[in-house]
Write a structure and sequence with these properties.
Layout (H helix, E strand, L loop, with lengths): L12 H30 L3 H12 L49 E5 L3 E4 L9 E4 L9 E6 L3 E9 L10 E7 L3 E5 L2 E6 L4 E6 L2 E6 L3 E3 L8 E10 L9 E8 L13 E6 L5 E4 L3 E3 L1 H8 L6 E5 L1
Parallel strand pairs: 8-17, 11-15, 14-16
Antiparallel strand pairs: 1-4, 1-7, 2-3, 4-5, 5-6, 8-9, 9-10, 12-13, 12-17, 13-14
């Protein structure tokens, strides 16, 4: 066959074939890279994926609240060597209430053991002891401040008798580890100028008296906060067999009363019960004293002018 019999070859045919082959190679490489990337993401272990998710979603830990108040004291003391805080005690080593018209903390406290040490200053040593049992009450006390490790409480007794010291409401500190702490949502509010007495339960007042008798100028009713330390039926004729509700406050002017070396303020019944006529006690009618007598020991009482 002569050369003229061969088919004629077109220019550029081979170049086009090479270009087409190159495109295929590039596409294949791109597909391979995408596959590797996808495989590397999907092939991660469940644990690794969980850890990654946790790093993104874990909340910032909330720090524990710092303890409030005085530091804890775990020392052991011989409370039997300390003078007892009771209605007859005169304890100049204990402070009086610095905020007599402040509110209560909403708790009562009572010793777990026979005696609980009492501090004037929680950074020092105890100076008195609170009994768990006492014939004349005063062992369940009102709390006026609650901390993590301590409670500030009102106490029976006096810092001094009126003629030789300060007879105002005593206070002290107890360790929370030494006491039974119980919530209480009731208080008593007395206004001498308004002639009203309310029992306040969970913030809701109930008017129990719109008239009563209180102390004279020479023997005034003590003002400020105190607590019910004893309720009992006495033999006093004027009480007519109804209960007398004794408070932790004592007279600001009388060293003693009725032959006793105490002058405790109380709510009680009396036939004459209007105006400034008493020795400091608050005289009420039968319904009012009956209502007050139902309140538990340690109930806070605020008496305002």
């Amino acid at each position: 066959m002569s050369d003229q019999e061969h088919p004629t070859r077109k220019p550029g045919a081979r170049a086009g074939a090479l270009i087409g082959l190159g495109s295929v190679v590039v596409i294949a490489v791109v597909i391979a890279i995408v596959a590797v990337v996808v495989w590397s993401r999907t092939d991660a272990t469940p644990a690794a994926r969980s850890a990654s998710t946790a790093e993104l979603s874990s909340p910032t830990p909330t720090p524990s609240p710092a303890p409030t108040g005085f530091p804890a004291n775990h020392a052991v003391y011989d409370a039997t060597a300390l003078p007892q805080a009771n209605v007859f005690a005169v304890l100049p080593q204990l402070p009086v209430d610095a905020e007599p018209h402040a509110s209560f903390a909403g708790y009562t406290a009572r010793p777990l053991a026979d005696l609980a040490p009492i501090w004037a200053d929680p950074l020092g040593d105890p100076v008195a002891a609170l009994p768990r049992e006492y014939r004349y009450g005063g062992t369940t006390v009102a709390v006026i401040e609650k901390q993590n490790d301590w409670v500030h409480v009102l106490l029976t007794g006096r810092q001094g008798i009126p003629s030789a010291g300060n007879p105002a409401q005593l206070t002290g500190w107890l360790r929370t580890t030494d006491i039974e702490l119980a919530p209480i949502d009731v208080t008593v509010e007395v206004s001498i100028s308004a002639r009203t007495i309310d029992i306040v339960r969970a913030g809701v007042p109930e008017r129990i008296a719109s008239d009563f008798a209180w102390g004279t100028d020479q023997t005034p009713t003590p003002l400020g906060r105190s607590f019910i330390h004893l309720t009992e039926v006495t033999s006093f004729e004027y009480a007519r067999g109804l209960p007398t509700v004794y408070l932790s406050l004592q007279s600001p002017t009388l060293d003693g009363f009725g032959g006793q070396d105490v002058a405790v303020t109380a709510f009680h019944y009396h036939d004459e019960r209007t105006g400034a006529i008493s020795n400091g006690c608050i005289r009420l009618d039968e319904a009012a004293i009956t209502g007050l007598a139902e309140l538990p020991a340690g109930t806070g009482v605020s008496i305002r002018p």
